Each structure stands twice: as C-alpha cells, then as structure tokens.
Amino acid sequence: MRTPSTIAALVLCTVLSSNVVAQDAPPERRYGKFYNGAFVDISARAARTHVSSGDYNGWSWDVGLRQALVMHLLDTRLSYSEDYWSGRGSVSGDFVARAVSVHGAFHPLYLALLYSNWFGYLLASFYVEAGLGAQYARETNLDASDFGLRLSLGTGFDVPLTDPDRGWSIWLNAVYRYTWADFDFASAAETKLRHHGGWLGASLRFNGLLF
C-alpha cells in the first residue's frame, strides 16, 4: 500500500512534468504560416488615364487597404485616390478628383491556389472587380467644385515578387479599370469624366486576416 508521502511525490512529479511540456510546446499561431489565399494587403498604385467621353488625359494615384478570405473569397479593397486631367488640343480646363472607393473582386481561378507554388498563386490572383466610390471634383480654372458618385468595372492580377509561404510577401499589382464619373457645374452644365485607367503598383501582403 502506497504511503501518503509516496502519493504526494507522484503528484508533484506529474505537475512538474506537465509544466515542462507546456513550456517546450511552440506558441499557438492564430493563422497558418503558409499562403492559402487569406491576406491583408497595403498597397500604392499609379495610373495613366484617358477620358473617353471628352478630350482629356491625365494620371492618377491611390493608396489602399485590401483583405481577402481563404481561397481569395470576399476580396475587398478600400482606397483613397486622386485623379488629374488636362484638356487636349484646343480643349481647355483642368479637373482634379479625390475619391474614397470600395472595390470587390471575384477570382475565377482560385482553385489554382492548391498548386501551392508561384505559378499557382499567379493564376489564382486573376480577378474581375466592381467598385463604388464618392468623389469630390474640382475644375481649377473656373474655381468650381462638385460632389458625386463613381462606379467602375475592371480586371487585374497580382505577381508575387517574394515567397508568400514565409508569412509575408511583396507583390506587383496590375489593373485595368473603366470608371463612370461626371462633373456638374452650378449652371446645370455637365462634363462627363468617364475614363480608362491602366494601374501599376506594389503591395506588402501579410498572410491571415485583419481581425
């Protein structure tokens, strides 16, 4: 029959051994290290733009925060952008538009993520997008301004420049986007600012979710 001192010694050994195991165990990760299509992305982009509804050319830039769920589901981007247009030839007028927009993207080739290599990540990155934004536009020569909405459709892809499976990575972003926008003068006249844009930028991407 075991004595009380023997039982106490066994209990003490059990507690000490469990503490050692707990200390040796690696810390729990909230998200996996390897890339599975879920990411948080901080990016900056620039674009050359052409107004299809008038004789204006210009350029744009934006910064944005993007997040996607596993397998690139529910890919959304919140961005702030500025557009600058000047008249071509005999057309006068300079426009500046500042906008806050939300874009949602669908990745038709998302299953390519299962390849778990650079080529699979590139294929899966291809997407089509739709966007909605609020803009404040200004005609600088006439000192006139206007608030309005803008809509857009586009397509793009992302190229991993470093290995996404290390937990964070740098990506190249390329996007084509067509945007519906206009400018309403106080006199009830309207200038349509529908424009094509070819965007190129870079992003810093972290595997996992923002929350």
Plain-language structure description:
This protein has 211 residues and is mostly beta strands. Helix content is 14%, strand content 54%. It has 2 helices and 10 strands. It has helices at 4-24, 118-125, and strands at 39-51, 56-68, 75-87, 94-106, 127-139, 144-160, 168-180, 182-184, 190-192, 195-207. Strands 1-2-3-4-5-6-7-10 form an 8-stranded antiparallel beta barrel. It has a two-stranded antiparallel sheet with strand order 8-9. β6 (144-160) and β7 form a beta hairpin. The longest helix is centred in the first third of the chain and has 21 residues, at 4-24. It is elongated, with a radius of gyration of 26 Å. The protein starts with a helix and ends with a strand. Residues 7-13 and 15-30 have low confidence and may be disordered.
Summarize this entry quickly.
The chain has helices spanning about 5-25, 120-125, and strands spanning about 40-50, 55-70, 75-85, 95-105, 125-140, 145-160, 170-180, 180-185, 190, 195-205. By secondary structure, the chain is mainly beta. The strands form 2 sheets. Strands 1-2-3-4-5-6-7-10 form an 8-stranded antiparallel β-barrel.
